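Lab notebook, bench 4. Still working through the backlog of constructs that have no structural model yet. Next entry is a single chain of 578 residues. Request: give me the C-alpha coordinates for it.
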Amino acid sequence: MKFLIEFVQQKDVENTAIFPYLKCSADEARILQYLTIAFLKGEEGLCVRDIITALFASPEESYQYLLHLENIKHLLELGWISQLEILPAVLSKIALLELLSTSITLTDSFLKLLEMGEVVFELPEIVPYSDHLEYLKDQFLRIDLLFKVQTLRENHTQNSPSLNDALLKLKLIEECIEKKIHLTQEDISIEQFFKEHNLNSKEKTIFLVLLKEEYSHSDEKVRDINSLINLISTKEVERISNRSLLDEHSPLVEKGLLDFDEVISPFGGIARTFFIPEDILYQATHLKKKKAQKVKLDILLKEQDIFEFIELTKDIDHIVLHPKTEEILKNLLQQMNVKVLNLLKEWGIKDKKSGIEAKIIFHGPAGTGKTITAKALAKSLKRPLLSLDCSKILSSFVGESEKNVRKIFDTYKNIAQNSKLEPILFLDEADQFLSTRTQMSVGGAEKMHNQMQNIFLEQIEKFSGILIATTNLLESIDSAFSRRFNYKIEFKKPKKEERLKLWDIMLPKNAVYEEHFDIEKLAQYPLTGGQIHIIVQNTAYKVAARENTCFYVEDFLKEIFNEKVASFDSEKVAGFLG
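Model written out:
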Protein backbone atom coordinates (compact mmCIF):
# COMPACT_ATOMS: atom_id res chain seq x y z
CA MET A 1 0.00 0.00 0.00
CA LYS A 2 3.04 2.28 -0.09
CA PHE A 3 1.91 3.91 -3.34
CA LEU A 4 -1.51 4.72 -1.85
CA ILE A 5 0.02 6.17 1.33
CA GLU A 6 2.49 8.26 -0.67
CA PHE A 7 -0.30 9.54 -2.93
CA VAL A 8 -2.51 10.80 -0.07
CA GLN A 9 0.35 12.22 2.04
CA GLN A 10 2.45 13.94 -0.66
CA LYS A 11 1.73 17.65 -0.85
CA ASP A 12 3.11 17.99 -4.40
CA VAL A 13 1.02 15.23 -5.97
CA GLU A 14 2.94 15.43 -9.27
CA ASN A 15 5.98 14.03 -7.45
CA THR A 16 4.25 10.75 -6.53
CA ALA A 17 5.22 7.44 -8.13
CA ILE A 18 1.88 6.92 -9.85
CA PHE A 19 1.57 10.41 -11.33
CA PRO A 20 3.24 9.52 -14.68
CA TYR A 21 0.63 6.80 -15.22
CA LEU A 22 -2.28 9.21 -14.71
CA LYS A 23 -1.71 11.15 -17.95
CA CYS A 24 -3.44 14.16 -16.40
CA SER A 25 -2.62 17.61 -15.06
CA ALA A 26 -1.53 18.44 -11.50
CA ASP A 27 -4.96 19.95 -10.72
CA GLU A 28 -6.67 16.77 -11.94
CA ALA A 29 -4.33 14.70 -9.78
CA ARG A 30 -5.33 16.87 -6.79
CA ILE A 31 -8.98 15.99 -7.49
CA LEU A 32 -8.05 12.30 -7.46
CA GLN A 33 -6.11 12.80 -4.25
CA TYR A 34 -9.13 14.51 -2.63
CA LEU A 35 -11.43 11.66 -3.67
CA THR A 36 -8.92 9.07 -2.39
CA ILE A 37 -8.74 10.68 1.06
CA ALA A 38 -12.56 10.76 1.18
CA PHE A 39 -12.67 7.09 0.09
CA LEU A 40 -10.34 6.11 2.95
CA LYS A 41 -12.70 7.89 5.35
CA GLY A 42 -15.60 5.85 4.04
CA GLU A 43 -17.08 8.66 1.96
CA GLU A 44 -18.08 7.61 -1.57
CA GLY A 45 -20.04 9.47 -4.20
CA LEU A 46 -18.99 13.06 -3.67
CA CYS A 47 -20.74 15.89 -5.46
CA VAL A 48 -18.65 17.60 -8.13
CA ARG A 49 -19.64 21.06 -6.81
CA ASP A 50 -18.36 20.19 -3.34
CA ILE A 51 -15.05 18.86 -4.68
CA ILE A 52 -14.12 21.77 -6.91
CA THR A 53 -15.22 24.43 -4.45
CA ALA A 54 -13.22 22.76 -1.67
CA LEU A 55 -10.12 22.62 -3.82
CA PHE A 56 -10.31 25.64 -6.08
CA ALA A 57 -12.87 28.21 -4.74
CA SER A 58 -11.42 31.59 -3.74
CA PRO A 59 -12.49 33.76 -0.77
CA GLU A 60 -13.64 36.48 -3.14
CA GLU A 61 -16.56 34.27 -4.23
CA SER A 62 -15.55 34.54 -7.89
CA TYR A 63 -16.68 31.59 -9.92
CA GLN A 64 -13.29 30.64 -11.30
CA TYR A 65 -13.66 27.15 -9.79
CA LEU A 66 -16.17 26.34 -12.54
CA LEU A 67 -13.28 26.21 -14.99
CA HIS A 68 -12.25 22.97 -13.26
CA LEU A 69 -15.33 21.22 -14.62
CA GLU A 70 -13.06 20.57 -17.63
CA ASN A 71 -10.77 18.62 -15.28
CA ILE A 72 -13.69 16.49 -14.09
CA LYS A 73 -14.71 15.73 -17.65
CA HIS A 74 -11.15 14.78 -18.61
CA LEU A 75 -10.86 12.40 -15.64
CA LEU A 76 -14.12 10.77 -16.73
CA GLU A 77 -12.70 10.33 -20.22
CA LEU A 78 -9.49 8.82 -18.83
CA GLY A 79 -11.52 6.31 -16.81
CA TRP A 80 -10.12 7.25 -13.37
CA ILE A 81 -13.53 8.37 -12.08
CA SER A 82 -17.11 7.50 -12.97
CA GLN A 83 -20.53 9.08 -12.41
CA LEU A 84 -22.96 7.53 -10.02
CA GLU A 85 -25.82 8.94 -12.12
CA ILE A 86 -25.26 7.92 -15.75
CA LEU A 87 -26.29 10.91 -17.85
CA PRO A 88 -28.33 10.01 -20.91
CA ALA A 89 -26.13 11.92 -23.37
CA VAL A 90 -22.82 10.71 -24.76
CA LEU A 91 -19.94 12.00 -22.62
CA SER A 92 -18.51 14.14 -25.43
CA LYS A 93 -21.87 15.93 -25.78
CA ILE A 94 -22.52 16.57 -22.07
CA ALA A 95 -22.66 20.24 -21.11
CA LEU A 96 -20.08 20.99 -18.44
CA LEU A 97 -22.69 22.50 -16.13
CA GLU A 98 -24.56 19.17 -16.19
CA LEU A 99 -21.60 17.70 -14.31
CA LEU A 100 -21.82 20.26 -11.50
CA SER A 101 -24.60 18.51 -9.57
CA THR A 102 -23.58 14.92 -10.34
CA SER A 103 -21.82 12.63 -7.91
CA ILE A 104 -18.57 10.89 -8.85
CA THR A 105 -16.48 8.06 -7.43
CA LEU A 106 -13.11 6.42 -8.10
CA THR A 107 -13.06 3.55 -10.58
CA ASP A 108 -11.65 0.08 -10.02
CA SER A 109 -8.87 0.92 -12.46
CA PHE A 110 -7.68 3.82 -10.34
CA LEU A 111 -7.92 1.82 -7.11
CA LYS A 112 -5.82 -0.94 -8.71
CA LEU A 113 -3.29 1.69 -9.76
CA LEU A 114 -3.09 2.97 -6.17
CA GLU A 115 -2.57 -0.56 -4.89
CA MET A 116 -0.11 -1.85 -7.48
CA GLY A 117 1.80 1.37 -8.17
CA GLU A 118 1.45 0.89 -11.92
CA VAL A 119 -1.26 0.44 -14.51
CA VAL A 120 -2.43 -3.17 -14.29
CA PHE A 121 -2.37 -3.18 -18.07
CA GLU A 122 1.36 -3.74 -18.65
CA LEU A 123 2.79 -1.42 -21.26
CA PRO A 124 5.74 -2.58 -23.36
CA GLU A 125 9.13 -1.21 -22.34
CA ILE A 126 10.03 1.98 -24.19
CA VAL A 127 13.06 0.72 -26.12
CA PRO A 128 13.85 0.66 -29.87
CA TYR A 129 12.31 -2.13 -31.93
CA SER A 130 14.87 -4.79 -32.88
CA ASP A 131 12.72 -6.27 -35.69
CA HIS A 132 9.27 -6.17 -37.27
CA LEU A 133 8.01 -9.00 -35.03
CA GLU A 134 8.39 -6.87 -31.88
CA TYR A 135 6.56 -4.06 -33.65
CA LEU A 136 3.74 -6.41 -34.69
CA LYS A 137 3.43 -7.77 -31.15
CA ASP A 138 2.63 -4.24 -29.92
CA GLN A 139 0.32 -3.52 -32.85
CA PHE A 140 -1.58 -6.78 -32.28
CA LEU A 141 -2.06 -5.77 -28.63
CA ARG A 142 -3.48 -2.49 -29.93
CA ILE A 143 -5.82 -4.37 -32.28
CA ASP A 144 -7.11 -6.48 -29.35
CA LEU A 145 -7.91 -3.29 -27.46
CA LEU A 146 -9.69 -1.84 -30.50
CA PHE A 147 -11.94 -4.90 -30.60
CA LYS A 148 -12.61 -4.55 -26.87
CA VAL A 149 -13.58 -0.89 -27.29
CA GLN A 150 -15.83 -1.79 -30.21
CA THR A 151 -17.57 -4.52 -28.19
CA LEU A 152 -18.15 -2.17 -25.23
CA ARG A 153 -19.60 0.47 -27.54
CA GLU A 154 -21.92 -2.04 -29.18
CA ASN A 155 -23.19 -3.03 -25.73
CA HIS A 156 -24.37 0.55 -25.15
CA THR A 157 -21.92 1.21 -22.35
CA GLN A 158 -20.80 4.61 -23.59
CA ASN A 159 -19.87 6.15 -20.24
CA SER A 160 -19.00 2.98 -18.37
CA PRO A 161 -15.76 2.71 -16.40
CA SER A 162 -14.92 -0.38 -18.49
CA LEU A 163 -15.08 1.57 -21.75
CA ASN A 164 -13.10 4.49 -20.33
CA ASP A 165 -10.53 2.03 -18.99
CA ALA A 166 -10.22 0.36 -22.40
CA LEU A 167 -9.90 3.73 -24.14
CA LEU A 168 -7.15 4.74 -21.73
CA LYS A 169 -5.23 1.52 -22.38
CA LEU A 170 -5.63 2.06 -26.12
CA LYS A 171 -4.28 5.59 -25.83
CA LEU A 172 -1.32 4.40 -23.76
CA ILE A 173 -0.32 1.61 -26.15
CA GLU A 174 -0.60 3.97 -29.15
CA GLU A 175 1.66 6.49 -27.41
CA CYS A 176 4.08 3.69 -26.52
CA ILE A 177 4.27 2.48 -30.15
CA GLU A 178 4.94 6.01 -31.42
CA LYS A 179 7.76 6.50 -28.90
CA LYS A 180 9.37 3.18 -29.78
CA ILE A 181 9.19 3.93 -33.51
CA HIS A 182 10.85 7.30 -32.87
CA LEU A 183 13.68 5.59 -30.97
CA THR A 184 14.24 2.92 -33.63
CA GLN A 185 17.12 3.70 -36.01
CA GLU A 186 16.64 0.81 -38.47
CA ASP A 187 13.68 0.71 -40.84
CA ILE A 188 10.76 -1.39 -39.62
CA SER A 189 9.62 -3.39 -42.66
CA ILE A 190 5.88 -2.97 -42.11
CA GLU A 191 6.20 0.78 -41.40
CA GLN A 192 8.36 1.14 -44.49
CA PHE A 193 5.69 -0.76 -46.43
CA PHE A 194 3.00 1.67 -45.19
CA LYS A 195 5.09 4.68 -46.25
CA GLU A 196 5.78 3.26 -49.72
CA HIS A 197 2.05 2.80 -50.33
CA ASN A 198 1.06 6.06 -48.62
CA LEU A 199 -1.53 4.44 -46.34
CA ASN A 200 -3.48 6.56 -43.86
CA SER A 201 -4.13 5.54 -40.25
CA LYS A 202 -7.42 3.77 -40.97
CA GLU A 203 -5.96 1.84 -43.93
CA LYS A 204 -3.03 0.81 -41.72
CA THR A 205 -5.42 -0.46 -39.06
CA ILE A 206 -7.40 -2.53 -41.58
CA PHE A 207 -4.21 -4.04 -42.96
CA LEU A 208 -2.87 -4.83 -39.48
CA VAL A 209 -6.14 -6.50 -38.46
CA LEU A 210 -5.95 -8.82 -41.49
CA LEU A 211 -2.23 -9.38 -40.91
CA LYS A 212 -3.02 -10.46 -37.34
CA GLU A 213 -5.57 -12.92 -38.73
CA GLU A 214 -2.94 -14.34 -41.13
CA TYR A 215 -0.73 -15.03 -38.12
CA SER A 216 -3.38 -16.32 -35.71
CA HIS A 217 -6.15 -17.84 -37.91
CA SER A 218 -8.50 -17.03 -35.03
CA ASP A 219 -11.80 -15.78 -36.40
CA GLU A 220 -12.91 -15.60 -40.03
CA LYS A 221 -15.69 -13.15 -39.04
CA VAL A 222 -13.02 -10.50 -38.50
CA ARG A 223 -12.35 -10.53 -42.27
CA ASP A 224 -15.93 -9.48 -43.01
CA ILE A 225 -16.28 -5.98 -44.45
CA ASN A 226 -18.73 -4.87 -41.74
CA SER A 227 -16.44 -6.01 -38.91
CA LEU A 228 -13.50 -4.12 -40.42
CA ILE A 229 -15.51 -0.94 -40.99
CA ASN A 230 -17.04 -1.01 -37.48
CA LEU A 231 -13.57 -1.30 -35.98
CA ILE A 232 -12.40 2.02 -37.43
CA SER A 233 -15.72 3.87 -37.01
CA THR A 234 -17.38 5.39 -33.93
CA LYS A 235 -20.46 6.93 -35.55
CA GLU A 236 -22.91 5.81 -38.21
CA VAL A 237 -21.85 8.58 -40.58
CA GLU A 238 -18.25 7.35 -40.29
CA ARG A 239 -19.33 3.78 -41.07
CA ILE A 240 -20.93 4.97 -44.29
CA SER A 241 -17.94 7.04 -45.44
CA ASN A 242 -15.37 4.45 -44.36
CA ARG A 243 -16.86 1.76 -46.64
CA SER A 244 -15.04 3.52 -49.47
CA LEU A 245 -11.77 2.27 -47.91
CA LEU A 246 -12.68 -1.27 -49.01
CA ASP A 247 -14.49 -0.83 -52.31
CA GLU A 248 -13.04 -1.91 -55.68
CA HIS A 249 -11.52 1.53 -56.32
CA SER A 250 -9.92 1.99 -52.91
CA PRO A 251 -6.08 2.20 -52.73
CA LEU A 252 -5.93 -1.01 -50.67
CA VAL A 253 -7.77 -3.03 -53.31
CA GLU A 254 -6.59 -1.25 -56.48
CA LYS A 255 -2.93 -1.58 -55.48
CA GLY A 256 -3.49 -5.28 -54.79
CA LEU A 257 -2.59 -4.92 -51.11
CA LEU A 258 -5.85 -6.65 -50.22
CA ASP A 259 -8.02 -9.11 -52.11
CA PHE A 260 -11.48 -10.43 -51.29
CA ASP A 261 -13.80 -13.39 -51.73
CA GLU A 262 -17.51 -13.01 -52.37
CA VAL A 263 -20.04 -15.62 -51.28
CA ILE A 264 -23.83 -15.64 -51.26
CA SER A 265 -25.12 -15.14 -47.72
CA PRO A 266 -28.03 -17.20 -46.29
CA PHE A 267 -30.29 -14.18 -46.91
CA GLY A 268 -29.42 -13.93 -50.60
CA GLY A 269 -26.98 -11.05 -50.35
CA ILE A 270 -23.28 -11.00 -51.21
CA ALA A 271 -20.89 -11.31 -48.28
CA ARG A 272 -17.37 -10.01 -48.89
CA THR A 273 -14.39 -11.16 -46.83
CA PHE A 274 -10.88 -9.76 -47.22
CA PHE A 275 -7.41 -11.27 -47.09
CA ILE A 276 -3.80 -10.30 -47.82
CA PRO A 277 -2.32 -11.97 -50.96
CA GLU A 278 0.74 -14.15 -50.33
CA ASP A 279 3.20 -11.94 -52.21
CA ILE A 280 2.02 -8.82 -50.35
CA LEU A 281 2.21 -10.69 -47.05
CA TYR A 282 5.86 -11.44 -47.79
CA GLN A 283 6.65 -7.87 -48.90
CA ALA A 284 5.06 -6.33 -45.82
CA THR A 285 7.00 -8.46 -43.35
CA HIS A 286 10.45 -8.47 -44.98
CA LEU A 287 12.60 -5.36 -44.87
CA LYS A 288 13.71 -4.06 -48.24
CA LYS A 289 17.31 -2.92 -48.06
CA LYS A 290 19.22 -1.01 -50.71
CA LYS A 291 20.54 -4.31 -51.95
CA ALA A 292 17.90 -7.01 -52.30
CA GLN A 293 17.97 -9.34 -49.34
CA LYS A 294 18.06 -12.99 -50.38
CA VAL A 295 16.44 -15.66 -48.25
CA LYS A 296 17.09 -19.37 -47.86
CA LEU A 297 14.84 -21.46 -50.09
CA ASP A 298 13.45 -23.60 -47.26
CA ILE A 299 12.14 -20.45 -45.52
CA LEU A 300 10.40 -19.26 -48.69
CA LEU A 301 8.82 -22.68 -49.29
CA LYS A 302 7.14 -22.61 -45.88
CA GLU A 303 4.99 -19.75 -47.14
CA GLN A 304 3.43 -21.69 -50.06
CA ASP A 305 1.85 -25.08 -50.78
CA ILE A 306 2.32 -25.39 -54.55
CA PHE A 307 5.89 -26.59 -55.02
CA GLU A 308 7.83 -29.44 -53.50
CA PHE A 309 11.56 -29.18 -52.90
CA ILE A 310 13.36 -32.19 -54.44
CA GLU A 311 16.44 -33.60 -52.72
CA LEU A 312 19.38 -33.97 -55.12
CA THR A 313 21.90 -36.80 -54.70
CA LYS A 314 23.53 -37.60 -58.08
CA ASP A 315 24.81 -35.47 -60.92
CA ILE A 316 24.86 -36.33 -64.64
CA ASP A 317 28.09 -38.32 -64.32
CA HIS A 318 26.48 -40.76 -61.90
CA ILE A 319 23.37 -41.86 -63.79
CA VAL A 320 22.98 -44.43 -66.59
CA LEU A 321 21.56 -43.06 -69.84
CA HIS A 322 21.38 -43.97 -73.51
CA PRO A 323 24.71 -42.78 -75.06
CA LYS A 324 22.98 -40.33 -77.41
CA THR A 325 20.89 -38.82 -74.57
CA GLU A 326 23.96 -38.54 -72.36
CA GLU A 327 25.87 -36.73 -75.11
CA ILE A 328 23.07 -34.21 -75.68
CA LEU A 329 22.77 -33.49 -71.95
CA LYS A 330 26.49 -32.90 -71.53
CA ASN A 331 26.46 -30.51 -74.50
CA LEU A 332 23.52 -28.73 -72.89
CA LEU A 333 25.43 -28.36 -69.62
CA GLN A 334 28.36 -26.77 -71.46
CA GLN A 335 26.02 -24.17 -72.94
CA MET A 336 24.46 -23.34 -69.56
CA ASN A 337 27.37 -21.63 -67.82
CA VAL A 338 28.35 -18.05 -67.02
CA LYS A 339 31.13 -17.91 -69.65
CA VAL A 340 28.69 -18.76 -72.47
CA LEU A 341 26.10 -16.34 -71.06
CA ASN A 342 28.61 -13.47 -70.97
CA LEU A 343 29.66 -14.11 -74.58
CA LEU A 344 26.02 -14.13 -75.72
CA LYS A 345 25.48 -10.80 -73.94
CA GLU A 346 28.64 -9.39 -75.53
CA TRP A 347 27.44 -10.45 -78.99
CA GLY A 348 24.00 -8.92 -78.38
CA ILE A 349 22.21 -12.28 -78.54
CA LYS A 350 20.96 -11.95 -74.97
CA ASP A 351 19.89 -8.98 -72.88
CA LYS A 352 22.53 -7.77 -70.44
CA LYS A 353 20.16 -8.12 -67.48
CA SER A 354 19.05 -11.67 -68.26
CA GLY A 355 20.36 -14.80 -66.57
CA ILE A 356 20.76 -18.39 -67.75
CA GLU A 357 17.56 -19.44 -69.48
CA ALA A 358 16.43 -22.77 -70.91
CA LYS A 359 13.09 -24.46 -71.54
CA ILE A 360 13.68 -28.18 -71.77
CA ILE A 361 11.30 -31.06 -72.39
CA PHE A 362 12.25 -34.68 -71.65
CA HIS A 363 10.15 -37.16 -73.62
CA GLY A 364 10.11 -40.93 -73.81
CA PRO A 365 8.54 -44.05 -72.28
CA ALA A 366 7.90 -44.25 -68.56
CA GLY A 367 10.80 -45.59 -66.52
CA THR A 368 13.54 -44.36 -68.87
CA GLY A 369 15.06 -41.91 -66.39
CA LYS A 370 13.41 -38.55 -67.11
CA THR A 371 12.81 -37.59 -63.48
CA ILE A 372 16.16 -38.77 -62.14
CA THR A 373 17.88 -36.93 -65.02
CA ALA A 374 16.06 -33.70 -64.13
CA LYS A 375 17.41 -34.09 -60.59
CA ALA A 376 20.90 -34.84 -61.88
CA LEU A 377 20.84 -31.83 -64.21
CA ALA A 378 19.89 -29.57 -61.29
CA LYS A 379 22.66 -31.09 -59.20
CA SER A 380 25.22 -30.53 -61.98
CA LEU A 381 24.08 -26.90 -62.35
CA LYS A 382 24.21 -26.47 -58.55
CA ARG A 383 20.61 -25.24 -58.54
CA PRO A 384 17.73 -26.34 -56.27
CA LEU A 385 14.82 -28.13 -57.98
CA LEU A 386 11.18 -27.22 -57.36
CA SER A 387 8.72 -29.84 -58.55
CA LEU A 388 5.13 -29.25 -59.63
CA ASP A 389 3.05 -32.41 -60.17
CA CYS A 390 0.87 -31.25 -63.06
CA SER A 391 -1.65 -34.07 -62.72
CA LYS A 392 -2.37 -33.11 -59.09
CA ILE A 393 -2.48 -29.39 -59.78
CA LEU A 394 -4.87 -29.84 -62.71
CA SER A 395 -7.39 -31.80 -60.65
CA SER A 396 -7.23 -29.33 -57.76
CA PHE A 397 -7.93 -26.36 -60.05
CA VAL A 398 -11.06 -27.78 -61.71
CA GLY A 399 -13.75 -25.12 -61.46
CA GLU A 400 -11.33 -22.49 -60.16
CA SER A 401 -10.61 -19.17 -61.83
CA GLU A 402 -7.75 -18.57 -64.25
CA LYS A 403 -5.88 -16.53 -61.64
CA ASN A 404 -5.11 -19.78 -59.81
CA VAL A 405 -3.17 -21.07 -62.83
CA ARG A 406 -1.18 -17.85 -62.93
CA LYS A 407 -0.57 -18.26 -59.21
CA ILE A 408 1.77 -21.19 -60.04
CA PHE A 409 4.14 -18.96 -62.00
CA ASP A 410 3.66 -15.89 -59.78
CA THR A 411 4.65 -17.94 -56.73
CA TYR A 412 7.68 -19.37 -58.54
CA LYS A 413 8.73 -15.87 -59.65
CA ASN A 414 8.50 -14.56 -56.07
CA ILE A 415 10.56 -17.50 -54.79
CA ALA A 416 13.16 -17.07 -57.57
CA GLN A 417 13.54 -13.33 -56.91
CA ASN A 418 14.01 -13.74 -53.17
CA SER A 419 15.98 -16.98 -53.02
CA LYS A 420 19.76 -17.02 -52.65
CA LEU A 421 19.88 -19.60 -55.47
CA GLU A 422 17.35 -19.35 -58.30
CA PRO A 423 15.67 -22.76 -58.50
CA ILE A 424 14.85 -24.83 -61.58
CA LEU A 425 11.12 -25.29 -62.19
CA PHE A 426 10.26 -28.96 -62.82
CA LEU A 427 6.87 -29.80 -64.38
CA ASP A 428 6.53 -33.54 -63.85
CA GLU A 429 4.01 -35.46 -65.99
CA ALA A 430 3.06 -32.34 -67.93
CA ASP A 431 1.03 -34.21 -70.58
CA GLN A 432 -2.35 -32.94 -69.35
CA PHE A 433 -1.29 -29.30 -69.38
CA LEU A 434 0.66 -29.47 -72.65
CA SER A 435 -1.57 -31.83 -74.67
CA THR A 436 -3.26 -30.76 -77.92
CA ARG A 437 -6.19 -28.42 -77.35
CA THR A 438 -9.65 -29.37 -78.60
CA GLN A 439 -10.56 -27.50 -81.79
CA MET A 440 -14.17 -28.54 -82.34
CA SER A 441 -17.24 -27.35 -80.45
CA VAL A 442 -16.74 -28.45 -76.87
CA GLY A 443 -18.58 -28.57 -73.59
CA GLY A 444 -17.93 -26.60 -70.42
CA ALA A 445 -15.21 -28.86 -69.02
CA GLU A 446 -13.28 -28.92 -72.33
CA LYS A 447 -13.55 -25.14 -72.67
CA MET A 448 -12.22 -24.70 -69.16
CA HIS A 449 -9.35 -27.08 -69.94
CA ASN A 450 -8.53 -25.18 -73.16
CA GLN A 451 -8.65 -21.88 -71.28
CA MET A 452 -6.26 -23.18 -68.63
CA GLN A 453 -3.92 -24.45 -71.35
CA ASN A 454 -3.95 -21.03 -73.01
CA ILE A 455 -2.96 -19.41 -69.73
CA PHE A 456 -0.28 -22.07 -69.22
CA LEU A 457 1.05 -21.37 -72.74
CA GLU A 458 1.12 -17.63 -72.03
CA GLN A 459 3.06 -18.17 -68.78
CA ILE A 460 5.63 -20.50 -70.40
CA GLU A 461 6.14 -17.90 -73.15
CA LYS A 462 6.98 -15.24 -70.51
CA PHE A 463 8.94 -17.61 -68.26
CA SER A 464 12.47 -16.49 -67.37
CA GLY A 465 14.82 -19.10 -65.92
CA ILE A 466 15.33 -22.84 -66.33
CA LEU A 467 12.25 -24.98 -66.83
CA ILE A 468 12.16 -28.76 -67.31
CA ALA A 469 8.99 -30.62 -68.28
CA THR A 470 8.50 -34.36 -68.76
CA THR A 471 6.07 -36.24 -70.99
CA ASN A 472 5.68 -39.85 -72.05
CA LEU A 473 4.37 -38.97 -75.52
CA LEU A 474 5.84 -36.03 -77.40
CA GLU A 475 3.26 -36.59 -80.17
CA SER A 476 0.47 -35.60 -77.80
CA ILE A 477 2.02 -32.21 -77.02
CA ASP A 478 0.31 -29.22 -78.63
CA SER A 479 2.55 -27.74 -81.35
CA ALA A 480 2.23 -24.30 -79.76
CA PHE A 481 3.80 -25.69 -76.57
CA SER A 482 6.41 -27.65 -78.50
CA ARG A 483 7.69 -24.44 -80.13
CA ARG A 484 8.23 -22.84 -76.71
CA PHE A 485 10.78 -25.48 -75.65
CA ASN A 486 14.22 -24.81 -77.11
CA TYR A 487 15.59 -28.21 -76.02
CA LYS A 488 13.71 -31.46 -76.73
CA ILE A 489 15.59 -34.49 -75.40
CA GLU A 490 14.44 -38.03 -76.11
CA PHE A 491 14.82 -40.80 -73.52
CA LYS A 492 14.98 -44.25 -75.11
CA LYS A 493 14.69 -47.64 -73.50
CA PRO A 494 18.14 -48.80 -72.38
CA LYS A 495 20.13 -51.22 -74.50
CA LYS A 496 21.75 -54.31 -72.99
CA GLU A 497 24.94 -52.41 -72.15
CA GLU A 498 22.98 -49.80 -70.17
CA ARG A 499 20.82 -52.50 -68.56
CA LEU A 500 23.95 -54.25 -67.27
CA LYS A 501 25.04 -50.98 -65.61
CA LEU A 502 21.57 -50.44 -64.16
CA TRP A 503 21.42 -53.97 -62.68
CA ASP A 504 24.91 -53.55 -61.25
CA ILE A 505 24.02 -50.23 -59.62
CA MET A 506 20.63 -51.32 -58.25
CA LEU A 507 21.40 -54.82 -56.92
CA PRO A 508 21.52 -54.83 -53.09
CA LYS A 509 24.95 -54.12 -51.68
CA ASN A 510 26.46 -56.20 -48.84
CA ALA A 511 24.09 -59.08 -49.70
CA VAL A 512 24.88 -62.78 -50.24
CA TYR A 513 24.45 -64.10 -53.82
CA GLU A 514 24.49 -67.63 -55.18
CA GLU A 515 27.77 -68.91 -56.59
CA HIS A 516 28.23 -67.91 -60.24
CA PHE A 517 25.37 -65.37 -60.03
CA ASP A 518 24.87 -64.40 -63.69
CA ILE A 519 23.83 -60.77 -64.13
CA GLU A 520 23.91 -61.28 -67.93
CA LYS A 521 20.74 -63.40 -67.67
CA LEU A 522 18.92 -60.49 -66.06
CA ALA A 523 20.23 -57.85 -68.51
CA GLN A 524 18.93 -59.73 -71.56
CA TYR A 525 15.34 -58.72 -70.75
CA PRO A 526 14.34 -55.38 -72.36
CA LEU A 527 13.42 -53.55 -69.17
CA THR A 528 13.54 -49.85 -68.37
CA GLY A 529 15.42 -48.43 -65.40
CA GLY A 530 12.11 -47.90 -63.61
CA GLN A 531 11.12 -51.55 -64.07
CA ILE A 532 14.51 -52.80 -62.87
CA HIS A 533 14.14 -50.62 -59.77
CA ILE A 534 10.71 -52.18 -58.99
CA ILE A 535 11.95 -55.73 -59.62
CA VAL A 536 14.98 -55.30 -57.35
CA GLN A 537 12.84 -53.82 -54.58
CA ASN A 538 10.18 -56.56 -54.76
CA THR A 539 12.82 -59.32 -54.83
CA ALA A 540 14.69 -57.85 -51.87
CA TYR A 541 11.50 -57.78 -49.74
CA LYS A 542 10.78 -61.45 -50.48
CA VAL A 543 14.35 -62.63 -49.82
CA ALA A 544 14.55 -60.65 -46.57
CA ALA A 545 11.34 -62.31 -45.33
CA ARG A 546 12.51 -65.91 -45.79
CA GLU A 547 14.93 -67.94 -43.71
CA ASN A 548 17.51 -68.33 -46.50
CA THR A 549 18.52 -64.75 -47.34
CA CYS A 550 20.77 -65.63 -50.28
CA PHE A 551 19.85 -64.01 -53.61
CA TYR A 552 19.38 -66.35 -56.61
CA VAL A 553 19.01 -65.43 -60.27
CA GLU A 554 15.74 -67.36 -60.18
CA ASP A 555 14.38 -64.93 -57.57
CA PHE A 556 14.82 -62.02 -59.98
CA LEU A 557 13.52 -63.99 -62.98
CA LYS A 558 10.23 -64.61 -61.16
CA GLU A 559 9.78 -60.91 -60.52
CA ILE A 560 10.74 -60.09 -64.14
CA PHE A 561 7.98 -62.47 -65.25
CA ASN A 562 5.49 -60.81 -62.88
CA GLU A 563 6.43 -57.36 -64.16
CA LYS A 564 6.07 -58.46 -67.81
CA VAL A 565 2.65 -59.99 -67.16
CA ALA A 566 1.47 -56.92 -65.26
CA SER A 567 2.54 -54.21 -67.66
CA PHE A 568 5.33 -54.94 -70.09
CA ASP A 569 3.27 -56.67 -72.81
CA SER A 570 0.87 -53.74 -73.01
CA GLU A 571 3.72 -51.18 -72.85
CA LYS A 572 2.05 -49.50 -69.83
CA VAL A 573 5.25 -49.54 -67.84
CA ALA A 574 5.28 -48.33 -64.24
CA GLY A 575 8.51 -46.88 -62.95
CA PHE A 576 9.88 -44.72 -60.17
CA LEU A 577 12.78 -43.19 -62.06
CA GLY A 578 11.14 -41.71 -65.16
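Notes after review: The first helix runs from residue 2 to 9. The CA atoms of residues 341 and 347 lie 10 Å apart. Flag for follow-up if needed.
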